[in-house]
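Lab notebook, bench 4. The sequencing result for the construct came back, and we need a structural model before the next group meeting so we can plan mutations. Quick request posted to the team channel:

Model the 3D structure of this chain.
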Amino acid sequence: MSGVFSEPARAKINLALHVLGRRTDGYHDLDSIVAFADVGDELRFAPADRFQITAEGPFAGDLPSADENIVASAWLLAGEIAATRGQPLPPTSVHLVKNLPVASGIGGGSANAAAALRGFLRIAGIDPDDSRIRAAALKLGADVPVCLVGRACRMQGIGERILPIEGFPPRHALLVNPGIAVSTVEVFRQLGLAAGQAFGAAISSFSDMADWRNDLARPAMALHPPIAKVMAALQAHPGTTRVFMSGSGATCVALSDEPLEGFRLPPKWWWAQTMLR
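Done. Here's the predicted structure in token form:
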């Protein structure tokens, strides 16, 4: 390996997140439309004497050890992939610039894992755009394969079935988080589905947003009422065309035809104007 380079870890936004039911193995069967924002974290790679991870940024102090471990897990997975191809992975340092709030429903940890895997495979001279690598990436987390693709997709099952959406129109978006870390496990527990129980209908249209919903919004708001305040603030703002919660929360999204202006949000809320692609 020579030189220093970086990989973006763009925020993952669930424009639709339909829970179809809970499987007998305990996993939830999902149908989701995902796009990626122009804002996100950044991972910087450099040669080193040993593998190491460092972090900085406005949310670096909020990182639990699991967020660092997911990058370490990506390192181990990349090493396994490289070894099968006779291309050992040299020692590398990874510096994470943490710009996105932690446990916020926009795939920060998954995007970090995907960016780490892309970077490590690049070092080994392996193209990450491979269905076998995406399948292996599912070991790191349900959202990691779609984050490897990094563009608008339909994601089904537990994240293993991915279909890129051709001709997806870029959309202006305002992302807002009330400063709350949300546990995905707790939100699914609040949803309360029994093993083998069916729940909602699948997505019927890629283009008709009236059909799209987030089945985790209600249980997330029951656990964290400030999410509803964010939704109300965005819905009241002129110019929004659709307001919804992403993932298991607490980040909410306002879509618009033009960048939103003149909004006032509490100083402790995190927000970002961006484009979804």
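The helical segments are 65-84, 108-123, 131-137, 144-149, 184-191, 217-223, 226-235.
Will bring this to the meeting.
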